[in-house]
Amino acid sequence: MLTAAVLGLSPVQAQEKVTLVLNWVPTADHAAYYWAKQQGLYQKAGIDLSIDVGRGSALSAQRVGSGGAAFGISDLATSLVAKGKGADLIAVMVVYANSPQGFYWLKSSGITGPKDFSGRRIGNPPGDAARIMWPAFAKAAGIDPASVTFVNITPQAKNAALKGRTVDIISDFFNEHDTKVIEMGDDLVHLPWKQVGINPYGNAIIVNGAFLQAKPAVVESFVKISQAAFAQCVADFAPCLKALTEGVSGLDEATQLRQWERIKWLMTDGFTTEKGLGWIDAARLKSDYDLVQTYIGLDKPFDPATAFTTKFLDPSVKMDASKVKN
Question: Which residues, by range, are in coiled-coil regions (predicted)?
Answer without folding.
Answer: none
